[in-house]
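User: Could you go from structure to sequence for me? I need the amino acid at each position, not a summary. Structure tokens:
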């Protein structure tokens, strides 16, 4: 007797297991059972698992019976004429969905000519095992799984043409590539999803070689001339929002140019771009610290009713301004109301981003890297025909990653560019590498994709042939302008007196355990001491009882809260976080006695 489980719960046993599984599958195909039901017989455990819960990945496959697929030419003709739909094929049992468990008992053929007597299902197309973005990776059956996966994820971060109405949208942190192109090497998924209407990359001439060590560790070298001609140029959009909030007691915010008597008033220079209504005008050029929307708010704390009369004169400054490191032009301004009927002002800032050292680029094969050097056009290596590459890719990225698809795309792109056609790189169904090589040979080039190249600085011929061709490269949203962060002094937290956290708050950079070890290894002990005193403080300590004393600077008086004036108070240098720990221990009724010794 075989145990049967429904969604992991034991529900009974059956004796004729083959008939039982067949009955469930046939009933599902006829429509007697829900299409969501999956059945899986695990031979090793002698168990049947039936699943019908949501959240399972299921794959559509064509049903094969007695060596013939149920999908016929008639079905395809009716689909093309619009007489039947996909849902009809599922209802008729021609196509069924299998989950990961049921797929274990299925024998799936990729193509119709591979069908045997044992075959149970036929794939609609081998590409259907991939997601949408993974199917966009050309020749992905020639690469390792993890790099195809990385290439898929990288495409989601690429800059492109994300929406047609971007001019009137108020999206947070969006980017727009100025001159996106359709890829020369593409898969059928590009046509299915209409990729041409929203491309997100550019076809570049890529040379696989090392350049003075500036493209080691996955870095890439860019041609300054290509950047000046518009390669990788994009715009970054970010909105600034202010609203007139209402507070208790009838007080409210006011969008205006703040008066000089307002608490926290900046300087006249910071407000110079505001118009009479306190809002900046379109196409104004703004830099960090400059106010975009002027606003004043009532005081935060009203201790007694008497202050209500003074509220108008003691307002505080709460304008929207550009943070540290930000700049740009005002794209457009929107004046509207929110759900509560309060005035709402949105200002969209536009910043042109030209590729610079530290910006991230990637191919569609997970070969991501940051710009390590931008070389003047005249110093770039060039081919015998005078062609200068846009990008130099490090050959070290290929052997360990085994992204052969990256190399094939360079060859395919070169062939497509020279022949003036698009190359089909659909996974498992692409143009043969051999045919591309033959075509390249007919076009007058070496069939292996290499060319003789010359050093742009010395003019000498390289002793080796360089692999060079066309490739689709993507600029990612990770730009150094959004991430660069440094700090000398700045704001600190109220509780621990340590620097605040995060770039947006002007926070400090944490020196962790590993960074500490590098200083120790260098013997830079004084530098290490300096790094660790961000919250250094002098604390009065009673030598008699070891408790923290009190220093009244106003009266110039030192005394101990336990011993009184009899205590001997000494100032001890310690971290404020440690002083905080002592206070917390005292709150737990623990006596943290400090035993002072001589300072050597």
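Assistant: Here is the amino acid at each position, in order:
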């Amino acid at each position: 007797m075989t145990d049967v489980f429904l969604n992991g719960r034991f529900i009974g046993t059956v004796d004729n297991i083959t008939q039982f599984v067949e009955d469930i599958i046939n009933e599902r195909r006829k429509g007697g059972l829900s299409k969501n039901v999956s059945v899986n017989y695990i031979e090793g455990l002698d168990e049947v698992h039936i699943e019908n819960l949501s959240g399972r990945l299921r794959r559509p496959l064509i049903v094969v019976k007695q060596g013939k697929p149920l999908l016929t030419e008639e079905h395809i003709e009716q689909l093309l004429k619009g007489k039947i739909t996909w849902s009809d094929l599922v209802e008729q049992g021609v196509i069924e969905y299998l989950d990961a468990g049921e797929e274990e008992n299925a024998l799936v053929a990729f193509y119709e000519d591979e069908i045997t007597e044992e075959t149970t299902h036929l794939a609609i197309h081998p590409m259907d095992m991939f997601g949408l973005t993974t199917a966009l990776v050309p020749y992905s059956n020639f690469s390792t799984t993890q790099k195809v996966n990385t290439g898929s994820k990288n495409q989601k971060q690429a800059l492109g043409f994300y929406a047609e109405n971007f001019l009137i949208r108020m999206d947070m942190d969006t980017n727009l590539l100025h001159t996106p192109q359709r890829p020369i090497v593409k898969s059928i998924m590009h046509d299915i999803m209409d990729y041409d209407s929203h491309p997100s990359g550019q076809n570049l001439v890529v040379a696989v070689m090392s350049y003075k060590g500036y493209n080691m560790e996955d870095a890439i070298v860019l041609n300054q001339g290509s950047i000046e001609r518009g390669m990788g140029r994009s715009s970054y959009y970010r909105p600034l929002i202010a609203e007139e909030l209402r507070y208790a007691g009838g007080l409210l915010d006011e969008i205006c140019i703040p008066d000089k008597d307002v608490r926290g008033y900046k300087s006249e220079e910071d407000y110079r771009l505001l118009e009479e209504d306190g809002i900046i005008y379109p196409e104004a050029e703004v830099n960090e610290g400059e106010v975009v929307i002027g606003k004043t708010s009532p005081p935060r704390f009203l201790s007694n009713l008497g202050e209500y009369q003074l509220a108008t004169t003691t307002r505080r400054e709460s304008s929207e301004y550009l943070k540290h490191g930000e700049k740009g032009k005002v794209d457009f301004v929107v004046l509207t109301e929110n759900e509560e009927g309060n005035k709402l002002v949105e200002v969209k800032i536009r910043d042109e981003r030209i590729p610079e050292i530290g910006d991230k680029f990637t191919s569609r094969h997970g070969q991501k890297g940051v710009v390590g050097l931008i070389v003047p056009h005249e110093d770039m290596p060039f081919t015998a025909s005078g062609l200068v590459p846009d990008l130099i890719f490090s050959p070290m990225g290929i052997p360990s990653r085994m992204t052969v698809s990256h190399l094939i795309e360079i060859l395919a792109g070169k062939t497509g560019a020279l022949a003036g056609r698009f190359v089909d790189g659909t996974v498992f169904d692409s143009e043969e590498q051999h045919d591309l090589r033959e075509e390249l040979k007919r076009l007058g080039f070496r069939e292996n994709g290499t060319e003789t190249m010359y050093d742009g600085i010395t003019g000498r011929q390289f002793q080796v042939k360089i692999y060079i061709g066309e490739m689709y490269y993507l600029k990612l949203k990770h730009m150094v302008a959004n991430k660069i962060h440094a700090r000398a002094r700045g704001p600190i937290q109220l509780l621990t007196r340590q620097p605040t956290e995060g770039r947006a708050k002007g926070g400090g950079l944490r020196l962790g355990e590993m960074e500490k070890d590098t200083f120790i290894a260098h013997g830079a002990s004084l530098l290490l001491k300096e790094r660790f005193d961000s919250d250094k403080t002098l604390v009065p300590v009673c030598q008699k009882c070891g408790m923290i004393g009190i220093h009244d600077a106003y009266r110039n008086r030192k005394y101990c809260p336990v011993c009184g004036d009899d205590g001997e108070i000494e100032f001890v240098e310690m971290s404020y976080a440690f002083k905080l720990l002592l206070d917390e221990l005292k709150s737990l009724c623990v006596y943290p006695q400090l035993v002072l010794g001589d300072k050597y």
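One structural detail worth keeping in mind: The chain has a mean pLDDT of 92.
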